[in-house]
Specification:
The chain is mainly α and 147 residues long. The protein is built from five helices and four strands; from the N terminus they run αβααβαββα. The chain has a domain of 94 residues: Orthogonal Bundle (Arc Repressor Mutant, subunit A).
């Protein structure tokens, strides 16, 4: 598999950010996955840090745990909180509350992913060197008849 050129990767990341609907959020890693670049969350963060496009909805991108990545109380923190609140997103103590990240394309088309089945319990096998122990039969009570 060949790597996409940097320009193409950047374009795809910016397109994924622009696709986040107003009032919804996504994590850096989710943006990278949507751009077809799984595992490139740091690239997303770096590009957002260098962004000069005033129309890019950068404020909709958060840490994976729903927190704003800027230091608490900083100018960026205050601006991101304000922009999210203006879109109706609930932000408390620097964390988005009551909202899960925006759905992936697969989730939009097919619904939420199903959980993997629980692993099956291991069973012990009888070995040739250790024969199975015989099960003792319970003694049956004797009955007496009157007669």
């Amino acid at each position: 598999m060949s790597k996409a050129p940097a320009d193409e990767s950047h374009r795809r990341i910016f397109a994924a950010i622009r696709a986040i609907p107003a009032g919804e959020v996504a994590g850096y890693g989710e943006v990278a996955r949507r751009a077809g670049l799984p595992g490139r969350a740091r690239l997303v963060a770096r590009l957002l840090g260098q962004n000069e496009d005033p129309d890019l909805p950068w404020h909709r991108v958060l840490r994976s745990d729903g927190r704003i990545a800027f230091p608490d109380g900083s100018r960026g923190f205050r601006e991101q909180s304000q922009r999210l609140r203006a879109e109706g997103v609930r932000v408390e103590s620097g964390r988005v509350k009551g909202q899960r990240a925006a759905a992936t394309l697969d989730e939009q088309m097919w619904g939420a992913p199903m959980h993997a089945p629980a692993p099956r319990a291991r069973t012990r096998r009888a070995t040739a060197t250790a024969p199975a122990k015989p099960v003792a039969k319970a003694a049956s009570p004797t009955r007496t008849t009157r007669g």
